[in-house]
Design brief:
Strand 2, helix 2 and strand 3 form a beta-alpha-beta unit. This protein has 355 residues and is an alpha/beta fold. The longest helix has 27 residues. It has two domains: 176 residues, Isopropylmalate Dehydrogenase (3-Layer(aba) Sandwich); 168 residues, Isopropylmalate Dehydrogenase (3-Layer(aba) Sandwich). The protein has 13 helices and 13 strands. It is globular, with a radius of gyration of 22 Å.
């Protein structure tokens, strides 16, 4: 398997990207094609032992920066994203991964490999670490103003991805709203509800924000704005909680002599809290984006995954692992076949002022 990696994508590129790619090539036995400024990439490769690994470099003279507008994809024609996706389009690789500007990756993918016929807009999906079992959250930010028909397609693609990534036969699908009743929610949500209800998906109905971490649904559908807020808020809350626990355990005279720590609904002695530290570390690992890997851009006609912009070498390795799994799962072919077999919804349009 050949994986194209955008060596210039991310906050810490190309150093951590090259390091993570070397680790992935060694651990997973895949061929890595690093795309970007060749001199910079080879300078980083020289820092690592690559004997026996299949790693090649394809030069791209320009870089789409993390703070660039998506229009930079067109303005910088020789950028590493576009060059890498061209290799994918030409069949010279099996998949593409970047930790760069997510909006720019989507734009480059649309220009470079195009959409799957029948899919109006791609969507970014990620595994969300719910309490019982993980869930697929879609969309994460590339479509802030989708139509009801777009949301139905997101649900369909998310359901197919859940079958591959989570091994589920009939993933439970729900849409995010401000109440469980069908009549609640934005005009977009209310217009989407009956379309999902009449689809062949295993649609449960609407769920509120408090239900998302409970694992009541396997596929959580929302617009990109809301999905991105959910993801970033969850990351922030988990980070705060873990730091608070660590600070409470390691500081303060009263805590060190074993006085109680108050947690809403729970009273733990310090020895009891120390006993829970292994579980807390497992929780940290479960919700760490470095462990969760990269998110697939569902709906484009090629295996394209986007990793976290803050990725370190370990996260890049994990992102490449996710990319391999997506390619092995034939997600593009699965979506393509499903679109051809499933009638597309023709109703549920938003009022003109809301569309």
């Amino acid at each position: 398997m050949k994986i194209v990696v955008d060596a210039m994508g991310g906050d810490h590129a190309p150093g951590v990207v090259v390091e993570g790619a070397v680790q992935a090539a060694r651990d997973f036995g895949v061929e890595i094609i690093l795309v970007g400024r060749e001199a910079d990439i080879r300078r980083e490769l020289a820092k690592h032992t690559t004997t026996g690994l299949i790693i090649s470099v394809v030069h791209a003279g320009e870089v789409v920066e993390m703070d660039d507008h998506v229009s930079a994809v067109r303005a910088k024609k020789d950028n590493s994203m576009s060059v890498g996706l061209r290799l994918l389009k030409e069949g010279k690789a099996d998949a593409f991964m970047s930790a760069g500007n997510s909006g720019a990756v989507m734009a480059a993918a649309l220009f470079g490999v195009g959409r799957i016929r029948g899919i109006d807009r791609p969507a970014l999906a990620s595994i969300y670490p719910a309490s019982q079992t993980p869930a697929i959250l879609v969309d994460l930010g590339v479509n802030t103003d989708p139509t009801p028909q777009n949301l139905v397609q997101f649900a369909m693609m998310g359901s197919l991805y859940a079958k591959i990534a989570l091994g589920l036969d009939q993933p439970r699908v729900a849409i995010v709203s401000n109440g469980e009743e069908p009549e609640k929610g934005s005009e977009r949500v209310k217009a989407t509800y009956p379309l999902l209800q009449n689809s062949n998906l295993n649609f449960l109905g609407s769920i509120e924000g408090k239900d998302i971490p409970k694992g009541v649904a396997d596929v959580i559908v929302t617009d990109g704005f809301t999905g991105n807020v959910i993801l970033k808020l969850s990351e922030g809350l988990i980070s705060f909680f873990l730091k608070y626990i660590k600070a409470t355990v390691t500081s303060g005279v009263l805590n060190k002599i074993g006085l109680v720590l108050m947690i809403p609904g729970l009273i733990l002695t310090l020895p009891g809290l120390l006993f829970l530290l292994p579980s807390i570390q497992r929780l940290r690992k479960r919700v760490d984006y470095r462990e969760l890997g990269a998110a697939p851009l569902l709906g484009v006609d090629g295996v394209v995954l986007i990793a976290h912009g803050r990725s370190d070498a370990e996260a890049i390795r994990g992102a490449i692992r996710s990319t391999i799994r997506a390619a092995e799962g034939h997600i593009v072919e699965t979506i393509r076949d499903s679109v051809n077999e499933t009638p597309q919804p023709a109703s549920g349009e938003l009022p003109a002022a809301q569309a």
